[in-house]
Amino acid sequence: MTMAEDIAEDILRAIIEGTMVPGDSLPPEADLAEKFGASRMTIREAIRILRTQNVVHINRGRGTEVNRVEVWTSLDAIMRVSAGNSGSTAFVADRLLEARRMIEVGAVQLAAERRTEADLERLAECIAAMQDAAERDDIDAVVEADIRFHDVILHASGNLFVPLLFDSFGPLLVQIRRKTSSIPAVRERALHHHEAILAALTAADQSEARTAMERHLLPEEGENPATAKA
Fold first, then answer.
1. pLDDT tens digit string along 8-33?
2. Is 230 helix (H, G, I), strand (E, B) or coil?
3. 54, 116: one domain
4. Do 223 and 120 share a structural domain?
5. How many domains does the chain divide into?
6. What's the rounded Cα separation, in Å, for the pair 66 and 50?
7. Does residue 57 share a domain with residue 140?
8. Pick from 10, 24, 31, 152: most CB atoms within 10 A?
9. 44-86, pLDDT tens digit by residue?
């Protein structure tokens, strides 16, 4: 890493740890240069890095201010802040569900038309593995089988771009699903939804496949999105 990247990382860590909060202004360039033993040009580059991630913005007359996590564009930074902040976790989980609905509902409709018998067998194997892991209370195995189930559907859509859309979400999906899958009632509901999705795909019913996936990816009334879905 360059010195500017190191400084940007130090500032980001301070924001994640709560030393600086949204609306706070970063210290003046001269103060940051003295603190980090760097030139002002290096400090400007560090701030530019944070601006490209939308972690901070320039407010004329007030300097460089910290943005709300809701507008950050760095997935890595979002995952890191959500790991230690329950409020951010709920927001991130909600937005992730929105993204999943936008992509997976369409993907499962395509899969209902294009899936193969091998795809159906793999989906059934995922459900069986998830059920077995749930009975053993093996959360990691539950999450692995759950993610594999959805991955099979993304590939069964027959559109090579669809699975790629989820690649960057991988670590965040695992993190959130590990939390949701630790709740027995959520695991049971997810299994029921997975069985309904598989039934629709087996029947090659595009409309029912969409409906089943929509039900799966919509929180039940009164549920917190951060603990609602697996």
1. 999 999 998 889 999 999 999 999 99
2. coil
3. no
4. yes
5. 2
6. 9
7. no
8. 152
9. 999 999 999 999 999 988 899 999 988 888 877 876 776 555 4
Report whether 176 contacts 93 (CB < 8 A): yes
Helix pair angle (117-135, 139-156), 10° resolution: 170
- Which phi and psi angles does 28 have, rounded to 5°? -60, 155
Task: Give SS3 for 59.
Answer: strand
Of 166, 4, 169, whose CA–CA distance to 75 is shortest? Answer: 169
Amino acid, res. 105: V
**CA-CA distance, 12 to 78, in Å (whole number)?**
11
- Provide the token pair at 226: 């951060």
Write the single-letter amino acid at 16: I
Tokens representing residue 41 in the block: 């040009």
Instruction: Examine the fold and report which residue of 13, 42, 71 is the final residue of a domain before the chain moves on.
Output: 71
Same domain, 162 and 83: yes
Q: Hey, what are 55's tokens?
A: 């972690």
Contact 49, 4 (CB under 8 A): yes
Q: Are 130 and 197 in contact (CB under 8 A)?
A: no
DSSP one-letter string for 182-201: TSHHHHHHHHHHHHHHHHHH
CA dist., res. 82 & res. 179, Å (int): 12
Q: Choose the final residue of a domain: 71, 96, 123.
A: 71
Q: What is the CATH number of the domain that holds 208?
A: 1.20.120.530
Q: Are residues 16 and 34 in the same domain?
A: yes
Q: Which domain range does residue 114 map to?
A: 75-227
220 phi and psi angles, rounded to 5 deg: -65, 155
Packing angle between helix 184-202 and helix 86-114, nearest 10 degrees?
Answer: 20
